[in-house]
Design a protein that fits this description.
CATH superfamily of the largest domain: Replication Fork Single-Stranded Dna Binding Protein
Radius of gyration: 23 Å
CATH topology of the largest domain: Replication Fork Single-Stranded DNA Binding Protein
Strand content: 15-25%
Number of helices: 8
Distance between the termini: 69 Å
Shape: globular
Largest sheet: 7 strands, antiparallel
Order of helices and strands: HEEEHHEEHEEEEHHHH
């Protein structure tokens, strides 16, 4: 029979895991908010999932912009973030359509608008923090949402034969220094780099790992959409491309922009694509509704999709109006 002390320890561990999974633990370190000209020093840790070869996980999101919120005359344009299922090696309904647009120079800009946005989730300590945070979590192990530009610096250094140990090694690891400068009107992190000397975790840091454990980074990826949620994503995508306002009654029980609540009586119930055997849903069908998804973490943008060859736009195509572009897209969807 377990002792009282053992029971207490187990309950504390369960509570800690529950707090991490909820996403409300304030663990994300917003390095993008550090002052210009300063450096934050990070020490990455391994993934708590020992099956993960890397000490990060990749996250793919798609931003769906809307002109506002339907029924709210004072609302401004909003953006809904949805997971791209290529994150799980499945075909994405948004990218399946957007890929075709890159074959037409006049639609290339629209293709980029709806292309997947890539980021990487890491964890570790902030050993030098130039950011004055109002509140820091009790658990000093933080999560980091890293942009592709910083990730390239991290990855390229790992291929350097002079690095003998993993940067996450507790005794011979390396710090990573995120430096923020400005290039034009935008933040620039190109001078970020690994430390030149190996160093060991401090006793305090080792104790934190022992006490709190490591995050399972995949817990902080969005939930994989099922067939119903994929149908919602496709409907939202089409609504966004058509320039419509976000319809909370149709979509809020699945995906919604930050600050928008779920209506008491949703009017839209999508069904699985196989409902009538031809990919068309039956009218009035009912399916279980998944929990709504709201993503609050930092998002980053990519310049262009790596896997899709992109032609240089021709000058004569640039004069097309938004209505012309939408008409071309709709024509492609019907053909």
């Amino acid at each position: 029979m377990a002792s009282l002390a053992e029971i207490r320890e187990k309950l504390k561990a369960q509570e800690a895991r529950s707090g991490r999974a909820s996403g409300g633990d304030n663990a994300i370190y917003p390095h993008w908010n550090i002052p210009e000209g300063t450096t934050a020093t990070l020490r990455f840790l391994p993934d708590g999932n020992t099956d993960n070869t890397f000490f990060w996980v990749e996250r793919l999101m798609i931003r769906l912009p809307f002109s506002g919120v339907k029924g709210d005359m004072s609302s401004k344009p909003v953006v809904v973030q949805v997971p791209c299922v290529e994150m799980w090696n499945d075909p994405c309904p948004v990218l399946t359509e957007a890929r075709t647009w890159f074959k037409d120079p006049s639609l290339e800009e629209m293709g980029r608008k709806y292309w997947k946005k890539r980021s990487y989730v890491f964890q570790g300590f902030v050993t030098d923090n130039p950011l004055k945070e109002d509140e820091t979590p009790e658990n000093p192990i933080r999560r980091f949402v890293i942009s592709p530009s910083i990730f390239t610096i991290i990855k390229d250094a790992l291929m350097d034969p002079e690095i003998q140990e993993l940067p996450t090694d507790y005794e011979d690891g390396l710090d990573f220094r995120v430096t923020k400068t400005t290039k034009g009107q935008y933040a620039d992190y190109s001078t970020s780099k690994w430390a030149r000397k190996e160093s060991a975790l401090t006793e305090v840091q080792k104790a934190a790992v022992e006490t709190y454990g490591l995050f399972n980074l995949s817990d902080y990826l969005p939930k994989k959409p099922d067939e119903v949620a994929l149908g919602v994503i496709k409907a939202m995508f089409e609504s966004s491309v058509d320039g419509e306002a976000y319809d909370a009654e149709k979509f809020a029980q699945y995906y919604r922009p930050y600050g928008v609540d779920v209506p008491n009586k949703p009017s839209f119930t999508p069904v699985t694509p196989e409902a009538d055997g031809k990919g068309r849903p039956f009218e009035g069908s009912v399916v279980p509704k998944p929990a709504p998804t709201t993503v609050k973490e930092e998002t980053v943008t990519e310049v262009k999709p790596e896997a899709t060859p992109v032609e240089t736009p021709k000058t004569e195509a640039s004069g097309k109006s938004a209505e012309d572009i939408l008409a071309m897209i709709r024509s492609r969807q019907k053909s």
